[in-house]
Structures are given as structure tokens and as C-alpha cells.
Amino acid sequence: MNDNAAMKTFDDIEVRRAGIALGYLALLDAQPGRPLALFAPRRVGKTYFLDNDLAPAAKAAGMLPVYADLWLHKSAPLAALNHALEEALDDLLVPSGNLAKMAKTQVKKIGLLGASVDLGDEPHRRALPESSTLRLDALVTRLARQHKGRVLLMLDEVQTLGDVPDGVSMIAALRSVLHKRRADVCAVFTGSSQEGLARLMNTAGAPMYQFAQIIDFPMLGDEFLRPLAAHFGKVHAGKKLDMAGLRDAFKKIGFKPALMRDLVKAMSAEGVTDVQRGIENYVRSDHQLAIWHALLNSVNAFDRGVLVAVAKGQPPLSQATLKTLEMVPGVKPTISKVRSSLEKLKRSGLLSKTAEGTTIDDPLFAEFLQRRGTTLTPYRILS
After folding, report:
1. What residue segments make up the domains of the chain, in order of their start?
2. At the topology level of CATH, where does 18-104+122-216 sit?
3. pLDDT band, very low/low/confident/very high, at 161 (cuts 50, 70, 90)
4. Model pTM?
């Protein structure tokens, strides 16, 4: 964590978890060819951990970390992974800076101020297979050989592989490479969809069946909240935030550090020390309301109705919910339509599927929806 004495703003508060990173690397060493799959909801710090804890620990151990966010490339996740590998290979073959590039080239003569200087063509990649699956194998092999050490693949939101039409073949190719090249490559996956990750890893007969070791990624706790409270006390002399209130609020918002930081910053701007009041003010702020209205406007009337039903704790496929959804004009609700809506809302990130059932991904957004009244018409929702 940053030195509190050097801390200037709430955004300077960072938590380092080097011990956890070293533990994960030890697990990878103990089971060559078997990846780790870290599960946690979205926005709880998985990507930050990969970038700031796991990657530095891997580099210190002589590995080459390569990161790919598959969520941002849902339609072509394997192509996104191959692109990340090609970028890493380029960085090794063509170091930054003109002098470094010159050092990598074969020689040919040019004139320079009356003298002859021998330069060559800039280095370029050898031809790689066109097939994405074969390309993955070739890239991992070349990258490990060029690095002269193991490659650590860090694949964010790996469950995305299961959502594309040819996902089964992609997953099979990834498993094959991780197994066949286990001396050269290891992998850490992350997943924010408990349902999607379980389907990917635990479906009998599927390519990844019981292949990865699924681990619950640990949430942040007091190691994050204490510096927030301490900095608040520095900004507002004589004022103090209650730790129990901070813990309750952090749990309520799903242990999302960026959101918690925003809440405390908003409280600091208003000089509020009551955490529950801070949440109430945040939920009712014009800025936050505008964001939530924009989210609602991004989906159609029927999807808005499904969102409100889920927020109110109604079983989305129940007859009572279907009856309520009849209030949405122009649509005759059916089980099939509700299922399609649920899948669409999950893909958009508005809904999550957990062991407890389908929930709104953002707990404060769920609270906002719960307050919109009983009717599900678009007019009332957006009023």
C-alpha cells in the first residue's frame, strides 16, 4: 500500500497483495499445465491485481506476463489473445528506440555525411498460421523461445470464450496449448460470471472440464477501508468515519473498491461522516441518477420491466412476474421472452447469475430500481 504520509488524494490509496500473487505462482509451479481460474464479481479489483501484483511477481520470477481482456473482444476472444501475444513478441523482437532497432537488423550500406554506414531491413515477423488455433500454438512457442523463459497468460473474463459460436473449438485449442506447452506457458484466468465460469470449467464432456483450479478471489477489507478513513480524518480535522459503518457499506455495494472510493470522496465533499447518509446522498445525486437513466434508456421497455422485477426480488420466470410484465405496453410476456431478456441483460453486464439466483450487478442500481414504484411502464421508470 502507498505510504500514508505521501498520500495526497483518496485516489492515491492503493492496496498491494504481493503475498497472494506469490501464492498463485507457487500453485502454478506445483501443477504444470493446469491453470488457475479466479472467480469474483466484476469491479472488485481482479484486473488491478493482475496488472499491479501478479504481473510484477511473474517478471521477478523470470516469466513474461501477457494480458488479454476477452470481455472487450466478445465476438473474437481468441483473436484478442493472439493479438496480445503478437504484441508481446514484437516487443521482444523490436525493442523501442531507433538504436535498438538498428542493433537488431541485418546490414546493408547507405551514405551518411560522406561515409558509408551499414544498415539492414527492420526486423519483421515470420509468417504465422492463418488459423487462430494454430496461430495460438505457434505464438506461445515463439514467445517462450524468444523470452528464454515461461510465458504467463493472464486472461480476463475467460467465460467469454463460451459465448461465441465456435467457442468449443477455441476452448479445446487453448487447453491443448496449455497442456502440450506446459514447460513454456502457464495461465491465470479470471471470471466475473459464476454461471459462465462453472459452465466452462465443470460441464462434463466440455474441453475445460475440471482442467483449471477454480479459486474464489479474495475481496478487499480493512486494509483498504482504514486508509480511506485515515485520509478522511486528515482532510477533515476533528471528524472521523466509523469503521463498522464503512464495513457495512462496503459489503452493501459488493466490495467494489472504486465505487467505495467514490462514495467516500462524495462524503468528503459534503463533510458528511454518517456513512448511511452518504450512501443515500450518492444514490439521489443528479450525477448518479443521470447515469442510471442512461442505462435504462439503453434497453427496451420489456427489458426495463425485467430489470425492475429482478431488483424487487421477484422470481423472473414466475407466473406472478409474467402477470406484472403485462403492464409493459405492446408486448405479450412469455417464459421464452423473459429468458431471452435475462440473457441479453447478463451479456450487457446489468445482471449477474450467482448461487443465490439472478441479481442486479450494481446493488445501488438495484436500490434505485426498487424505489421507482410498482408499475413497470417505461414512463414511470424514467420519470
Report:
1. 18-104+122-216, 222-284, 289-381
2. Rossmann fold (3.40.50)
3. confident
4. 0.82
